[in-house]
Structure formats: structure tokens, C-alpha cells
Amino acid sequence: YIIRSIPKYYDERLNMQFETWMKHLNENDDVLVASKNKNHIDKFNLKYSTPTCPKDYDIGVCCSESNAIVKALKEYEFDWVFILDDNVYVYPDKVRSIINKYKDNYNVALGTSGCESNGVEGLCGGGGYAFSKQALQKIVGKDKNDVLKYESFLEEYKISCEKTKFHDITMGELATKNNIEIIDIPEFKPWGIDTDEKQLIIDNKIATLHYHGGGITKDKKNVKDKMYFLQSLFFKQ
User: Fold this and answer.
1) CA 189, 192, 194: angle at the middle one, nearest 5?
2) Is a pLDDT exceeding 70 seen at residue 237?
3) Looking at residue 116, what is its pLDDT?
4) Left (φ > 0), alpha (ψ -120 to 50) or beta: where does 206 sit?
């Protein structure tokens, strides 16, 4: 998992992810936080990517995500990566089962298509998106000596983001440019769900919920209440 966050959200958003769904990761799962160096302090025994990035939201998030992808490819062993925000509730078993269906199809991205910015179509990233290691390597590209071109990837990502202003649309654009098929996964919910959709959780049809659940948790007072409420629904506590 690569989780987009920044230091000011560690103690609330990231902590509540750590205290809820992360407790259900298995021994083969790992977490890398895509953050920035300003005011960073290691927390919750997680791994962090902390490049120096612009302060603005759009280019800054693109910078932190692209650098985390590079760090993952350089330093970690993995087959697939799932990229998400720090205000998402995840049901790890469902995410794992979805990725398992495509585990041998390396030329796909799993997510939600349909978002657009400045004439560029890409992913709607709120519900998260998954790429195989091979797909990421294809996007990064290799030189004539079969060495991954990390610096040119970071520059290409930056140029695309300056145009789109959104990291998810940039990832979608780079996937399409490299002939990686984007497969829509209805269990990923970029906008959360409403109260009357609770049955989807009971029927095991939800893998992720953005905005700490969305409408289903609108009556909860704070992030902690929202996340523990979702935890109780998914794990019937």
C-alpha cells in the first residue's frame, strides 16, 4: 500500500487507518506513506517517502506520489501496489481478492475511470487504484541498458500534473499512454456510500470507502468515530 498523507494529518487520519483496517493486513502486506520532508516525524512504525515537494496541493501531491512509486520500485519487493489517500477506509481481504483475480494480468490498472481535467481523461483516485510492479516499470520506462529511467519518469509525471493538476488523472494518462488497460472496479468507492447502501458492506461488495465512508458516516462527530463505526460494520464488532 502507498498512502498519500502529510505530517499534519498523521495523528488523526493516518493514525485512525493504523488503528482500524491496517490491523487486518497480513504478513505479506506492507505500507509506504507518500509524504514530504517538512515537519515529518516517523510514526506508527510505518515506512515513509519524504521528498522535498512544492507546498501547493496539486503539484505537491503529484511529487509525493511519484517519488513514493520510485522508492517502492527501488527498495521494496512487491507484486502489486495499491495507492490511496489517508482518508480512506480499506477492507484488505476484499482488495486482496480483487487483485488476485488479475494477478497474472500485469498490463492493467485497477481503479475507477471517468475523471477528466483540461481535456485529459484519467482515474478517479478517491477509491484507490492498483498497479502491478510490471505495469509501473512499463510506465517508468527503461533505457537501452534495461535500466529503469526514474529521473525521466519523475519529470514526465511533473509535466503531466502541471497540465491536469490531479495525481490520479496523471496516473491514468500515463497508464493509457503506455497501453495499460484501466479496469473499473465497482467495489472501489471514490465518493463513499450513503446510508441506504449499507447492505453493500454486508454483501461483501465494498473494498474501499473514500472520505471516511462518505454519507454513511455523516452523523459521526469526528474521524475516530467514523473509522471505528466502519470497522464495526466490516468486522461485525
Assistant:
1) 125
2) no
3) 92
4) beta
